[in-house]
UniProtKB/TrEMBL annotation:
One of its GO terms (biological process) is asparaginyl-tRNA aminoacylation. It comes from the Archaea. Keywords: Aminoacyl-tRNA synthetase, ATP-binding, Ligase, Nucleotide-binding, Protein biosynthesis. This is Asparagine--tRNA ligase related protein. GO terms for molecular function: asparagine-tRNA ligase activity; ATP binding. Residues 41-321 form the Aminoacyl-transfer RNA synthetases class-II family profile domain.
Amino acid sequence: MKVNKIHKSNLHLCFMESGEINTLIEEISEHLEKPELYHALKVQSSIRSITSEFLKERGFIEVPPVIISVLTDPLNHPVFDPTIDYYGYKYSLTKSMIFHKHLLTKHFDRIFTFSPNIRLEEEDKVKTGRHLAEFTQLDLEMKGASRDEVMSLGEDMIIDLFKKIKRSNEEDLKFFGRDLRIPSKPFKRIAYLDAYKQYGEDFEHILSSEMKEPFWIIDIPLEKREFYDREDPSRPGILVDMDLIYPEGFGEALSGGEREYELSRIIDRIHRKGQTEEQFKWYIEFAKEGLMPSAGFGIGIERLTRFICGLERIEDAHPFPKIPGHLSL
């Protein structure tokens, strides 16, 4: 009898798994058949080619992405952190290539990559409509650059992209009923603490909903970011960094700024974040050999697609979206 009970229990489990599989297959099939996905992926393909060409024309070299590493972005918010034991070494899935691109600036002046990022967000992030557990980030870095220089580059890239998308993807924009507005340069800048004082904790969403063009949030407080963002020497507690925010309620577009490159400041910042030198020993060893001052940013390709197409949710910008808290293929 005991054997039969185990057999029935296993059979029931198999039926449950089969049901889940069938449901997932149906959902994926329906998703792949959507005309919205087809047009969104056409736009996304153009985004990749246009931005790549833009950067190469300005002296950037494309480098391959890093998928697993013993060193990855700690992030400043909680995510699940799966690791791989490979020949006795602990590898993490890449959350962003922030450290790798900074290391590259010792040998290359300007680099970019289309980096697959794995951030296993907590389930509540699904509410935003702009979070995926797996996404692609256009990550770039410039040796010796200031925040103002990378912000200017970002503005030029966005303007160039929007102009060319309006020509190359006219039919796709027409399908979405999207009249893509070309922003004017320079984009508006708003200091983080000023925005917080006026609108409270939800200032990003409020401002994003009110604005008609992309805008910058600058001078973010130290505790809101990771240790590698450079603290302004003349304003302790304030970072030389920025976020670009889409208008129309679409939220954050890109994040970046200047990097800490002096060993003593890096170690001090690690300690002030409550982290340990052991966590970042690889990076510290490179810092001992000398790092270069640099600045850069990362911009999410799926979020950019979502904004250009005016999509309600980011899932419609990916054929196999990894939705936080949901079973995905």
